[in-house]
Amino acid sequence: MDLWLIRHAVAEDAAPDGLDARRAVTQEGRDRFARGVRGLARIGVRFELVLHSPLLRAQETADLLEPVTEGEMAVCAALARAPDDELLAGIQGSVVALVGHEPWLSQTLAWLVFGWRVYEQDATTAIVELKKGAAAHLVGEPSPGGMRLAALYPPAALRAFGRR
Amino acid sequence: MKQPPLIPANTWLDELTRQIDRLAVAIDPDPVHRVRVAAGRVSVWLELGARRALRDDLRWLRGSASAVRDLDVITALDAGSNSAGAAWAETLRSERAEAASAMRVAFASPRVAALVEALSLVPDPDPVCVRSALQRLKRRVMRAGDQLDDPEDGEEALHRLRRRIRRLRYALDWMGADATELRGLQEHLGDLNNLSVELEKLETRQADHALDGRRKAVRREMDGRRERALEAWIALRPRIGEL
């Protein structure tokens, strides 16, 4: 399986009602991420399944992935918390994207690649930091320690692919 | 052109949540039907806002209730006709119990709670998106209508038109616009679809000759409904652009 961990695009600092879950992707974040999506398209990425967290900025980021989505999009509450078995159970298909948040995405990466959960010691720990709009490409079986990190794409790299 | 404001989103979001809560208690025909309607209306609301995320979840939710809904429709049609017999009624009851079990599992999944939470976070559609979505929905209705002329499409073309008319009507309802003109056609197409669902189920029991009479009656009824639906479409077609 090819699994892509994608951090949401740049969002506003605060929602009008102050609720973190309702923070929307900014216009600039939208434009920049869309250019990154062109980069994903250019390197031949096509998702069979896009799982995204319920938070608005993740929903809106998933929307922006539509040009590279050939299958279903599905909301997944487990992407809005520390990674657990429920998240792994939802990962099905051969090319899947998880659109979520830090520090949980990088914790997911650590769990899938190394097999241990860094956050059990410290909930804020991350062994890599995914910038907003960045993507990590993992290959293997979506089980603890079952994947290897094939590539880590900062957002600027994805945008650069899109310009080529 | 100034766009009228949409009716409040919670009108249908609350209805969706209410029906999901009712279904957690019992898989009764009324909440099964109403959850599907609410999910369809909310999906159109997302489309008016040019949002793709959550629409697949709503489609999945509707789909999870469709087997039970189909059996409820067939049971109601058969009850009205009283011509299919007790054995067939028992078959339908047993299949419904099985479909209701599968539906209960789907509705108890974390995806449903996540969907409700996610929907509560979505802002109202942007008026510019609403205008272009409405035009797109009208164009899709027109294209579906044009495809009725293709003999190869047959019944599928009518089902496509029914789905697109329904979405256009929901969009107009969200905008508080008058969708009365669509209702007649939607009803004919809906009745035709219900009969078609029943016929499909009856045809899985070709060897059961006790059902021959009902099969024949359903086919005859479908011919009448098809004719009425086509007449209604021909009358409505020139008016779609003005809705």
Determine Rg of chain B (CA atoms, Å): 19 Å
What is the CATH architecture term of chain B? Alpha solenoid
Biggest beta sheet attributes of chain B: none
The strand count of chain B comes to: 0
CATH top level label of chain B:
Mainly Alpha
Strand-residue fraction of chain A? Answer: 15-25%
What structural category do the secondary elements of chain A indicate?
A: alpha/beta
* N→C terminal distance of chain A: 27 Å
**Stretches with pLDDT under 50, minimum 5 residues of chain A:** none
| Count of spatially separate domains of chain B | 1
User: Would you tell me the structural class of the helices and strands of chain B?
Assistant: mainly alpha
What percentage of residues of chain B falls in helices of 4 or more residues? over 70%
CATH class of chain A: Alpha Beta
What is the H/E string of chain B?
HHHHHHHHH
The chain pair forming the largest interface, with residue counts per chain, is:
A-B, 21 and 19 residues
The average pLDDT value of chain B, as a whole number, equals 92
Task: Tell me what you see in this structure.
The complex is a heterodimer of chains A (164) and B (243). Chain A has helices spanning 27-42, 56-64, 85-90, 104-114, 155-163, and strands at 2-7, 47-52, 69-75, 95-100, 135-140, 147-153. Chain A is α/β, with parallel strands linked by helices. Chain A has one domain: Rossmann fold, CATH 3.40.50. A six-stranded mixed beta sheet of chain A has the order 3-2-4-1-5-6, sandwiched between helices. In chain A, strand 5 and strand 6 (147-153) form a beta hairpin. In chain A, helix 1 packs across helix 5. The model of chain A has no long low-confidence stretch (mean pLDDT 94). Chain B has 243 residues and is mainly alpha-helical. Chain B has a single domain (10-242), classed as CHAD domain. Chain B is built from nine helices and no strands. The longest helix of chain B has 27 residues, at 55-81. At the A-B interface, helix 2 and strand 3 of A face helix 3 and helix 5 of B.
